[in-house]
Amino acid sequence: MIKVEKINKSFADKHVLKDVSFSFEAGKTNLVIGASGSGKTTLIKCMVGLHTPDSGKIIFDGATFEDLVKKDKRELRQQIGMLFQGGALFDYLTVEQNIAFPLSMFTNMSEEEKKDRVNFCLNRVNLNNVNNLFPAELSGGMIKRVAIARAISMNPKYLFCDEPNSGLDPQTSIIIDNLIQEITQEYNITTVVNTHDMNSVVEIGDNIAFINKGKLAWQGNKDSIISSDSPELNDFVFASQLLKKLKQ
Amino acid sequence: MIQGLKMFGKYLSLLGNVFSRPENKKVYFRRILDEMVKLGVNSLTIVSIISLFMGAVVTIQTGLQLSNPFIPKYLIGFATRESLVLEFSPTMIALILAGKVGSSIASEIGTMRVSEQIDALEIMGINSSAFIIQPKIIASVLFFPILVVISMAIGMFGGFLAATLGGIISKAEFLQGLLYWFQPFYIFYAIVKTVFFAFAISSVSSFFGYYTAGGAIAVGKSSTKAVVYSCIVILIVNFVITQLMLS
C-alpha cells in the first residue's frame, strides 16, 4: 500500500499539487484521473521520487520515502516498476537486453537464468519471438508490452503506469489495461495508473482518485463514478455529447 | 556572470555525481569498451583523413616559407613534425572531435532525457549520471590520446608524401628533418593536453545533454551548445597548459 499525505508541489509561482492525500491499495489498480494539466503526472513523479514534494509525506508500506537514507531510497526504487507514456525503452538495446537490464544491474543471475526470466516476462505479456528486435522495430502496443515486461522483471511491489494507453487504438488499449489488472492481482502489486482514458476507468478502476486543478476532488471506484454528484467530475467524465446524452 | 557561475556550479555538482561508485562494475566496464568503440574507433577515419591532409599542407606551406638557400631544406621536415606534435594534432583534432563526438554525446543523452530513458534509470535505482556519463569520460580520456598519436604519425606521412611527390625536398632530407632535435617531452605535453581536452569534450557535452529540457528542438540546441562550449574550453585549456608546461 502507498499513502500520500498532504502533498504540495509548486514550480516557480505555479502551485500544481495542493494538499493531496490518498491511499493506493495493494492488489488493486489505483487510477489517478483528471484533465491534462491537472497535476496527475506531477503526483506520480513525486511518488516515484523524480520530483521532491514541497511538503507532505509519501509512505510505502509504512516507510516514509523522505525519511529514508540514499541507500534505502535506491533499494526501495528497485521494488518499483514503471511504465512510461512512451515506453522509455533503451533504444540501443534489444528487447531481450532491455528486459534483462535491471537483472544485470542488480542480481547475480547467470546468463541462462536471465534468459529464462526474460522469456517468462515476455510470455506473461503475450509477446513471442521479439527477443532480438530493437524498440524502433516494434509497434506502439508492443513497446508498451515490452515496457511492462521490463517493469515486472524484478518482481516489483509497486507498479506505476503513466498514461499507458496514449497513442494506442481502443482494442490495444483494452488489452494493455487488462494486462495491467491481471498482473496487479496475480502478484498483489500496488499499481498506480495515471490516465484520462474513460475506457480504462470503466475497465480497471478499482480505486480512483480524481484530481482537479491540483486538488483531490473526488475518490471512489468504477461503479460509483457514473452516479457521482460532483459537478467537476461529471464535466470530466461526461465531456463528450454522446456520454452527456447517455447520462441524461 | 551570475548565470555563468550557476551553470559552472551545476556542472561541478554533476561531475560529483558522475564519479560516484558504480552499481555494477562489470556492466560499467562493458560500457567503457562500447564507448571506446563508439567515440574513439569510429573517429579513426575522419582523424586519419584530416591528419593526412593537414600534414601535407603544413609541409607545402613551410616549404614555401623556407625558400632561402641559406636555410637547410631538412628544416621543412623538422617544422612539420614540431607543428603537428605541438599544436595541430592535439588541438586541431580535439576541435574536430568536439564537433563529431561532442554533438553525438549531447544529442544521445538529450534524446535519452526527452524520451524519459534517464527517468527510467533513476526509477530503477540507478545513478543515471554515473551510468551514462562516467563510461564516456573514461573512454574519451583513454582513447583520445591514442587518436592524437595516430594523427601525428599520419600527419607526418602526409607531409612526407607532399614533400617527396611534390618535389619540395628529397625523401632523405625530409626524414632527416623529422628526426632532427627530437624532444620526447613534446609528445608528453601533447598527450597531457589531449587528456584534458578529452575530459572537457566528454564532460561538457554530457552536461548539456543531461540537462536538456523540452523536445527535439531542445536536443538540437543542446548539441550546438555542447560543441560551442567544448571548443571554447579546449582553447582556454590549451592556453593554460601551454603556459604551465612550455613557458
What layout of secondary structure does this protein have?
The complex is a heterodimer of chains A (248) and B (247).
Chain A: E1 2-11, E2 14-24, E3 29-33, H1 40-48, E4 55-60, E5 63-64, H2 70-77, E6 80-83, H3 95-106, H4 111-124, H5 140-152, E7 158-162, H6 170-187, E8 190-195, H7 198-204, E9 207-212, E10 215-220, H8 231-237, H9 241-247
Parallel strand pairs in A: 3-8, 3-9, 6-7, 7-8
Antiparallel strand pairs in A: 1-2, 1-4, 4-5, 9-10
Helix pairs in contact in A: 3-4, 3-5, 4-5, 5-6, 6-7
Chain B: H1 2-18, H2 25-40, H3 44-65, H4 75-114, H5 117-123, H6 128-165, H7 171-179, H8 184-210, H9 216-246
Q: What would the keywords be for this entry?
A:
heterodimer; A: alpha/beta; Rossmann fold; 6-stranded mixed sheet; globular; B: 247 residues; mainly alpha; 84% helix; elongated
Largest interface: A-B, 24 and 13 residues
Beta content of chain A comes to 15-25%
Number of structurally distinct domains of chain B: 1
**Would you tell me the overall average pLDDT of chain A?**
90
Name the CATH homologous superfamily of chain A. P-loop containing nucleotide triphosphate hydrolases
The major sheet of chain B is characterized as: none
Could you characterize the architecture of this molecule?
The complex is a heterodimer of chains A (248) and B (247). Chain A has 248 residues and is α/β, with parallel strands linked by helices. In chain A, 38% of the residues lie in helices and 25% in strands. Chain A is built from nine helices and ten strands. Chain A has helices spanning 40-48, 70-77, 95-106, 111-124, 140-152, 170-187, 198-204, 231-237, 241-247, and strands at 2-11, 14-24, 29-33, 55-60, 63-64, 80-83, 158-162, 190-195, 207-212, 215-220. A six-stranded mixed sheet of chain A has the order 6-7-8-3-9-10, with helices on both faces. In chain A, strands 2-1-4-5 form a four-stranded antiparallel sheet, covered by helices on one side. In chain A, strand 9 and strand 10 form a beta hairpin. The model of chain A has no long low-confidence stretch (mean pLDDT 90). Chain B is mostly helical and 247 residues long. Helices cover 84% and strands 0% of the residues of chain B. The chains are: A alpha/beta (248), B mainly alpha (247).
